[in-house]
Amino acid sequence: MKITGSQRKLYLLALALLMVAVALVCAWTLWGGWEAASDALVEPSPDAGVEATPVPPADADGVSAATPSAEPESTTPTMSTVVYYQDNYGYLVPVMRNVAYQDGIAKATLQMMVQSPENDMNAARLGLRTVLPEGTTFDLDIHDGLARIDLSEQVLELPDAAAESNMVSAIVQALTEFDSVERVEFLVGGQKREKLTHGTDISQSFTRGELNLETAAGVGDGLEPVMLYFPCESGSVVVPVTRMVYSDADVNTAVLELAKGPGAQSALEAALPQGCGLIGVDVVDGVARVNFTEEFADLVQNSDGGRLALKALVLTCTQFDGVDSVEILVEGEPYDPGEGTLAVPSFANVASEIENAYIQTQASMIFDYE
To answer: In angstroms, rounded to a whole number, what is the distance separating the alpha carbons of residues 182 and 205?
Structure first.
């Protein structure tokens, strides 16, 4: 990546501000506040994929909430939840976070998606942004699979239809991560509305939909949805994208589509090197053996050695039943991309794993003059 002197100064300033903010947070932690809670963090353990969320017993909202870990009396138990943010181009990004164990985890999850100094800082450390406008409050009632959310009138002040649609989709995705929520209904200021300010229809209840759908085409007419994962331009997270295909929605089709890269108008990064072709995919005893052309070896030239791209490949493959792991061949010969690079992630994006990656990526961009 080539950058100008002025861009380099802006990058340096942004990185310096981010690092100062992180240092302040760490200093505050050392003096008290989060010290006990930080010792209690535990790694989540759902299967890989956007749909894979821990399923615990019901909490006070009637929503599944994670069972607290057995911890010493001096520590605070934590639970995992999936928060939906957006990147700078409007793609919704699911991130698994550990929070202190509490009743009403569904409402707490949505509160982390509201713009505020604390929430915005947490999102910025991942290279992402919050989706609900500042000052938004809400009431949440869950019964018989229906989550009815009553939003305050701040949601009527969003700047455009795209922001409205992202907010609605993020809320629906976050709530339907819980097994006890099948449908989501919206109220604003205690009243049922047909549309939001810029025309977003909220007249009917919503079920979980296709995330980051590339086109407006429906599933009909022989089209099938397939989930692909591409690295975000921030260099720290992978973004799930739904592409409609005429082929069977299986692992062969998914890897072939992944090799084609993101859509022409997309700001996402390609997971595979330019010119890399797919020779074939064979699944034997739960292992997807993916055979690429020789261009695949260029992956190591990525700034992170291709680790994020390999993560996108593994997630794309292991979303399918019967695929538990991935092996790579190049022109039919076994290829070793490095230790741990083909491990199946516990979730697409885990906050504790990607915060440092974001800072490192931004630093490398500043000093990359080639």
So the answer is: 10
pLDDT tens, position by position, 136-155: 999 999 999 999 999 999 99
The C-alpha angle with vertex 263 and arms to 363 and 115, in degrees rounded to 5, equals 55
Say yes or no: 56 and 199 in one domain.
yes
The number of domains in the chain is 2
Instruction: Encode pLDDT of 314-340 as tens digits.
Output: 999 999 999 999 999 999 999 999 888
Q: Which residues pair with 333 in a beta bridge?
A: 330
Which parts of the chain are beta strand (E)? 78-86, 92-100, 138-143, 146-151, 183-188, 206-207, 224-231, 238-245, 278-284, 287-292, 325-330, 333-335
**Model-level pTM?**
0.79
Residues of the chain short of pLDDT 50, as ranges, are: 1-3, 25, 28-58, 60, 62-74, 369-370
d(CA 359, CA 25): 15
Q: Is residue 356, in this structure, part of any structural domain at all? A: no
For 143, phi and psi rounded to 5 degrees? -155, 130
Would you list the DSSP string of 55-95?
Answer: ---B-TTSSB-PPPP---TTS--EEEEEEEEE-TTS-EEEE
User: Domain for residue 353, yes or no?
Assistant: no
Which domain, by its residues, includes 75?
46-207
Sign of the torsion formed by the C-alpha atoms of 249, 251, 256 and 262: positive
